[in-house]
Amino acid sequence: MQFMQDNIPMILVAVSSGLMLLWSFFGNSIRGVKEVSSAAALQLINYKNALVLDVREVAEFNAGHILNAKQIPLGKLNESIGELERYRTQPIVVMGSNGQRSAAACVLLSKHGFELAYNLAGGVQAWQKAGLPLKQ
Question: Topology of domain 32-129, per CATH?
Fold first, then answer.
């Protein structure tokens, strides 16, 4: 008991870092976001005719994107949801730079009834790390 009293700051740091680690592993699943790896995304694109939705800004998109990707910046997604209506029943692979914006986009899409939205885990960075091509 004396040990705990003497080391309260260190114990709090250990507990909070553990909670942050757990949140990073389970945060997206708690919010209802389905994540896919680059390989799984490629399967969805090639065999399930998935739409690739790129939620990065225009300059980021123009620097390199997946072939045939539809670009709608995250900030404009809510007002542009009608553009995606015809894709409601097919898989949508949502991508950003590193997976954070695309996770938020997946939450928004699910609120609008798009049940087949998948977050590309790691975003474009993971896509490139897997050696997959981008169109300039």
Answer: Oxidized Rhodanese; domain 1 (3.40.250)
Six-digit token string for 6: 């003497």
Q: Tell me the CA distances in angstroms from 81 to 54, 63, 74, 97, 131, one per residue in order.
A: 13, 24, 11, 21, 31
Q: Given a cut of 80, is residue 18 above it in pLDDT?
A: no
Domain locations in the chain? 1-30, 32-129
Residues in the chain: 136
Instruction: Provide the 8-state DSSP code for 30.
Output: H
Read off the pLDDT band of 21 (50, 70, 90): low
- The secondary structure of residue 23, as a DSSP letter, is H
Burial 79-102, CB ≥16 within 10 A → b, else e: eebeebeebeeebbbbbbbebebb
